[in-house]
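Good day; I would like, with your permission, to put a structural problem before you. What I wish to show you is a protein chain and, alongside it, a tokenised description of its three-dimensional fold. Thank you for your consideration; the sequence and its tokens are set out here:
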Amino acid sequence: MSHNPLLSAPELSELITRTRVIGADSSLVVFGGGNTSAKGTVTLENGTSHRVMWIKASGGDMATATESTFAPLDLDMIDELRAHQDLTDEQMVELVAKTSLLQGAPRPSIETLLHGFMPFTHIDHVHADAICALTNHPDGESATREALGDEWAYVEWMR
């Protein structure tokens, strides 16, 4: 593993393990898809401390995840993007790219802001067959609530 603190943080190591386990289960992922992320704090070689979110890169395969599968982003800069309410996809991708803490890092998931704005340290977003069967129902939210109860969050798809 690299000595770069962004690539050797324990949070990233745990995220890689978690991502591989999820990615190995074909009932949870479709063609390696889905997103995982973890948040932590890293002190860089120059002594500056940063809140970091590592998120799976767009197109990265979950089953074979490595350090290079994840983009380390400045979480404080991600938080500042809350002020932007009406961005095109292209504008959002451009702004998110500017939050990268590592030159040459892969392009982060299109769902980076969703992961960044949620208060959770660890997020696993999968496309489980059973869940897709519920959420893709004409009344997906009600079908999901009936099957799973109230201990989950439903986020409407938006473009």
Notes: The longest strand covers residues 35-43. The chain has two domains: 5-127, 129-159. The longest helix spans residues 10-23.
